Amino acid sequence: MRARISGTGSCIPLHRLDNEAISRMVDTSDAWIRERTGIESRHVICEESTVSMAAEAAERALQNAGMDPEEIDMILVSTISSEVILPCTACEVQRRIGAVNAAGFDINAACAGFLVAYQTAEMYIASGMYRNILVIGSEGLSHLVNWKDRGTCILFGDGAGAAVVTSQSGERLEGACHSDGKKGTALTCRTRYNEDEMPDDRCYMQMDGQAVFRFAVKKVPEVIEEVLEKNHLSKDEIDWFILHQANGRILESVARRLEVGIEKFPMNLQEYGNTSSASVPILLDEMNRKGCLKPGQNIVMAAFGAGLTWGASIIQWQ
Ligand code: COA
């Protein structure tokens, strides 16, 4: 069996924080942030939560797929920033949307999490165990960001995206994902500290920005080439490259290295910043709702993040 995406949804928090607002909090400027990242604003949760955004994105995806919650067999939520550890976000989503027949669990592969969750769903579908799986990326990163650290707080934003992944007959498209724990120190965040120690900056995200940049521009083109080869597809046969929205310069570099026109790399990081594992499904949903995705088109999804982790998948739009 093969997986296809039969519906998408997303949820963006109402509160918008532009670069001018950030430059009143830390020593930075709108010009610096735009030039180094392409980001102009990000949205942050106030009334919303990681769980509520996940449920809302899921409901919109179900509506888009024309499916009832009872038809969902499994819910997979990728998140690193849920307000609740127990119960897992997937079970909370199940309760809120009434997906009474679904099993569910959460996945943490940082910004590559949606890709890993999608590939997990593909495997359940390929095995014949499940038919309809809700795959969600939801992040409230504003709680993990140190708003005094200009090296990180300019980058991240909150939001959620979801896809209904459904089985259909046909050969499975091969994906790829990788990890390199030896380089894990490039991007870290502790949730607990020794009781003798005072809480400190390590409880917020800490990043070696240049190390992450170098890793992304090398590994993302490599893993895209890998999935193209596995599926016997050429770059010319790909209509869209829907990549993790971390930095406009990273996307430009990936496009250059692949020798593919940047117009095939849609971007919305200007508005939302880096929403970690929510970025790929939010962009997918925007593209879907704008009518940019046409039946039969081949789409590469690729992402990278803390771990370090990275991966890519190919989907054929229906
Ligand atoms: N505003 C103004 N100046 C800043 C700044 C900010 N927000 N952040 C850093 N600077 C300063 C630095 O202190 C440094 O000053 P110096 O030259 O006087 O020492 C200068 O700008 C250059 O810093 P550098 O770290 O070399 O900038 P950069 O071009 O590498 O850009 C990032 C920094 C974080 C934007 C970039 O490295 C990046 O995007 N990396 C990838 C991060 C990422 O995607 N993470 C998520 C992965 S899922």
How does this structure look, described?
The model has no long low-confidence stretch (mean pLDDT 95). 32% of the residues lie in helices and 23% in strands. The protein is globular, with a radius of gyration of 18 Å. It is built from nine helices and 13 strands. It has helices at 19-23, 30-37, 50-65, 89-97, 113-127, 209-230, 248-258, 269-272, 279-289, and strands at residues 2-11, 15-18, 41-44, 74-78, 103-107, 132-139, 159-168, 176-179, 187-188, 206-207, 240-243, 298-305, 309-316. α3 packs across α4 and α6 runs parallel beside α7. The strands form four sheets. It has a five-stranded mixed sheet, sandwiched between helices. With 318 residues, it is α/β, with parallel strands linked by helices. The site of coenzyme A has 18 residues, from α2 and α6.
Placed side by side, the strands forming the largest sheet appear as 1-7-6-4-5
Q: Please report which band the strand proportion falls in: under 5%, 5-15%, 15-25%, 25-35%, 35-45% or over 45%.
A: 15-25%
From N to C, what is the helix and strand string? Answer: EEHHEHEHEHEEEEEHEHHHEE
User: Helices and strands: which structural class?
Assistant: alpha/beta
β-strand number: 13
Helical proportion, percent range: 25-40%
Largest sheet: 5 strands, mixed
Number of helices: 9
Report the principal-axis shape: globular
User: What small molecules accompany the polymer chains?
Assistant: coenzyme A
Rg of Cα set: 18 Å
What is the first-to-last residue Cα distance?
15 Å
Mean pLDDT: 95
- Detail the poorly predicted runs: none
